[in-house]
Write a structure and sequence with these properties.
Blueprint: H1 16-28, E1 37-43, E2 49-55, E3 58-60, E4 65-71, H2 75-82, E5 85-92, E6 97-107, H3 110-119, H4 122-130, H5 140-154, E7 164-178, E8 186-191, E9 194-196, E10 202-204, E11 208-211
Antiparallel strand pairs: 1-2, 1-5, 3-4, 4-7, 5-6, 6-7, 7-8, 8-11, 9-10
Helix pairs in contact: 4-5
Bound molecules: flavin mononucleotide.
Flavin mononucleotide (FMN) binds near residues 34, 53, 69 and 75.
């Protein structure tokens, strides 16, 4: 499946409908084993970067954030607590498309994390209890033992561990890239401001679009 092409000649004011359509197409056509995988970069307050793949479970076009889930006590969890500024990349190789995003994270409302947690397979729910994500582990045997202990403790209906949940990654920059013929790609960047508004949200300003040399 190839989708080389261009962005609209006149850029739309809001990039989110295109981002959402690309994400939906990638998932519907299962263009790769994990079409929702996203490289997520965090940084410590002194600017040391780290990146890893997480699953981008939702793209919410309006008001403009994406959602991922993880262990709040992991390396990324600690980094995000100290510095909420993040960047992400989604790349769909077979669609010749890349989305780069930048912004700030807030915790998902607990009921949203509960709802997603309860939709996960039982083994994944047990795993969230068993894994001390990012901490040293002396052997796989220790992990398997913890999985067995947590499975026995929780039975068939594990509740969400307090250390596990989601983030809303609010977008203050979105860059859409699509591959063009003869390496003449098309690329545009949208930016906006974010004003904090409560524990779980930001109030965004209007998007501004700029086409960039590829
Ligand atoms: C395809 C793929 C999907 C992944 N999805 C997640 C995810 O949704 N959440 C998560 O916490 N880790 C996920 N991981 C594991 C992370 O890449 C990473 O190893 C883990 O979160 C620990 O990162 P940290 O030590 O920087 O916190 C995924 C890895 C891969 C390769």
């Amino acid at each position: 499946m190839s989708h080389s092409g261009t962005l609209p000649a006149t850029l739309p004011q809001d990039p989110m409908p295109i981002f959402e359509a690309w994400y939906r197409e990638a998932r519907e056509h299962k263009v790769q084993p994990n079409p929702d995988s996203m490289v997520l970069a965090s940084a410590t307050p002194d600017g040391t970067p780290a990146a890893r793949v997480v699953l981008c479970k939702k793209v919410i076009a309006n008001p403009g954030y994406v959602v991922f889930f993880t262990n709040y006590d992991s390396r990324k969890g600690h980094e995000l607590a100290a510095n909420p500024r993040v960047a992400g990349v989604l790349h769909w190789d077979t669609m010749s498309r890349q989305v780069r995003i930048e912004g700030r994270v807030v915790f998902c409302p607990p009921e949203e994390s509960d709802a997603y947690f309860s939709s996960r397979a039982i083994d994944s729910r047990i795993g969230a209890w068993a894994s001390l994500q990012s901490q040293p582990l002396d052997s796989r045997a220790t992990l398997l033992k913890r999985v067995a202990i947590e499975a026995a403790r929780h039975g068939t209906a594990p509740t969400r561990p307090p250390h596990w949940g989601g983030y809303h990654f609010w977008l203050e920059a979105v860059e859409l890239w699509c591959e063009g013929a003869f390496r003449v790609h098309d690329r545009a960047r949208w930016t906006r401001t974010l004003q904090p508004s409560g524990n779980h949200a930001y109030t965004p300003g209007p998007w501004q679009a700029t086409r960039l040399y590829p």
